[in-house]
Amino acid sequence: MARLIFKTALTAALLLLLVLMGMNNRQEVEFNLPPIVNKTQKQPAAIMYFAFFAVGLLTGAILVALGPSAMFSLSFNGVAEDEALTLAKRFDWKTIQAAIPK
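Structure (tokenized):
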């Protein structure tokens, strides 16, 4: 029960921080990520903060909910299959697999 209260308080504190950032950062910022997004995105800073927070929160929640026996798959459009395979071969999959808690 104490763990749930702690997690709820931590989430509320993070959301408060997000609200404060949104209230005080209304200027537009540019976001560039050429491999994935080809066009420069211009949004208010608060929207960017919220987007990054939401993506991180959802990714963490999904990984925790899936547990250690799950498989996570990620795909991108615009990457050729041979290029993706070349990138995948660069990873040390044995080390990654060995690091997963059992």
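The helical segments are 2-24, 45-66, 81-90, 93-99. The CA atoms of residues 95 and 101 lie 12 Å apart.
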